[in-house]
Design a protein that fits this description.
- The complex is a heterodimer.
- Chain A is an all-beta fold.
- Chain A is built from no helices and nine strands.
- In chain A, the strands form two sheets. Chain A has a five-stranded mixed sheet, with no helix packed on it. A four-stranded antiparallel sheet of chain A has the order 2-7-6-5, with no helix packed on it.
- Chain B starts with a strand and ends with a strand.
- Chain B is 0% helix and 53% strand.
- The radius of gyration of chain B is 14 Å and the shape is globular.
- Chain B is built from no helices and eleven strands.
- In chain B, a hairpin with a 7-residue loop joins β9 and β10 (106-109).
- In chain B, the strands form two sheets. In chain B, strands 2, 4, 5, 6, 9, 10 and 11 form a seven-stranded mixed sheet that branches. A four-stranded antiparallel sheet of chain B has the order 1-3-8-7, with no helix packed on it.
- By secondary structure, chain B is mainly beta.
- Classes of the chains: A mainly beta, B mainly beta.
- Chain A binds chain B through residues 31-32, 34, 36, 41-46, 49, 51, 87, 91-93, 95-104, and chain B through 1, 4, 6, 31-32, 34, 36, 43-46, 49, 51, 57, 91, 93, 95, 99-100, 103-112, 114.
Chain lengths: 111, 118
């Protein structure tokens, strides 16, 4: 299982764009990159998933360079409600594959 | 996205009793579900992988006789904490895997169950 490394915490202000980078140097060919958001006392919520290049949905964008050894979650114009822990996970399509959670990044959005 | 529910959301029990937590996939079938435990301000720790119709696979250090897992149908997995003790107090979260056809597998998580053992 590919190990991931993220910054422990980040601070931002309302209206700013936030970029959280995750490194996964030993990512395997079949691995996808998935980001989750977790609020206190709630289960993680799926944000976005990608394999290479760029993926965008209504919530965020995910940038993955050609070597796939890192990825960046981009949150446009954050609000106070985006304060949460963000987890980057790497896993494959294989049946039974589980995701291993790293420490996550605690994002604090200030007014 | 897919919806996963858990019941109960919160439970308080006396030491020595057993507690059952249910995890349901509401709008899809899940051949594989996962159970996690999370302590305050810590990350999620995988406890076991629950496979429909077969025995669960436990992570190292997790006692299978204490944390009984049953995945009797494609939409339901249960975790029973037997003879609970105060150190079992934690936030228990389940997830269900949705196989991707043109994408990676995605896990959708339940809202979690807060267990407090007195």
């Amino acid at each position: 299982l590919a190990k991931t490394t993220q910054p422990i915490s980040m601070d931002s202000y309302e209206g700013q764009e936030v970029n959280i980078t995750c490194s996964h140097n030993n990512i395997a060919t079949n691995d996808y990159i998935t980001w989750y958001q977790q609020f206190p006392s709630q289960g993680p919520r799926f944000i976005i998933q990608g394999y290479k290049t760029k993926v965008t949905n209504e919530v965020a964008s995910l940038f993955i360079p050609a070597d796939r050894k890192s990825s960046t979650l981009s949150l446009p114009r954050v609000s106070l409600s985006d304060t949460a822990v963000y987890y980057c996970l790497v896993g494959s399509n294989n049946a039974g594959n589980m995701l291993t959670f790293g420490g996550g990044t605690r994002l604090m959005v200030k007014p | 996205g897919a919806v996963v529910s858990q019941h109960p959301s919160r439970v308080i029990c006396k030491s020595g009793t057993s507690v059952k937590i249910e995890c349901r996939s509401l709008d899809f079938q899940a051949t594989t579900m996962f159970w996690y435990r999370q302590f305050p301000k810590k990350s999620l720790m995988l406890m076991a992988t629950s496979n429909e119709g077969s025995k669960a696979t436990y992570e190292q250090g997790v006692e299978k006789d204490k944390f009984l897992i049953n995945h009797a149908s494609l939409t339901l997995s249960t975790l029973t904490v037997t003879s609970a003790h105060p150190e079992d107090s934690s936030f228990y979260i389940c997830s269900a895997r949705v196989a991707g056809v043109r994408s990676g597998d995605t896990q959708y998580f339940g809202p979690g169950t807060r267990l407090t053992v007195l």
